[in-house]
Specification:
- The protein is mainly α.
- Helices cover 56% and strands 0% of the residues.
- It is built from four helices and no strands.
- The longest helix has 33 residues.
- The radius of gyration is 15 Å and the shape is globular.
Length: 120
């Protein structure tokens, strides 16, 4: 059986409390290059929201029982921006983000990721 998921995020949840982008949440959640990319967009808040949704998608899918997760859009950008090296960098980045999320949730292996670790 195949399932497709769509993450929807209220933009107000990401809006900086003081109207400044130099916020602890943004510094903790996004790399400097991700922040620079989002800030260069016509609508930075929408760029941050899309990036945030992508960051949590892999963990959420695994927690809800997925055997694998397919993420396409960022790979297209990685290929055009850096070829094979760009793709390798993006895969390494995803692996690091998944490892960080697992650590924060107390999961030491993929098998330990459970549905109670996410809000649906």
């Amino acid at each position: 059986m195949h399932h497709i998921g769509i993450d929807i995020l209220r933009l107000g949840r990401l809006r900086p409390m003081d109207g400044q982008w130099d916020d602890p949440f943004f510094r903790r959640t996004f790399t400097v290059s991700e922040q620079q990319h989002c800030q260069a967009q016509p609508q930075p808040l929408m760029a941050y929201a899309g990036m945030f949704a992508a960051k949590e998608a892999v963990f959420k899918a695994l927690a809800l029982g997925a055997d694998g997760v397919l993420i396409c859009r960022p790979f297209v950008t990685a290929v055009y921006g850096g070829g094979a090296e760009g793709v390798k960098c993006y895969i390494d980045k995803l692996a690091g983000e998944l490892a960080d999320t697992m650590q924060m949730c107390g999961a030491h292996t993929l098998a330990e990721i459970t549905p109670d670790m996410v809000r649906v």
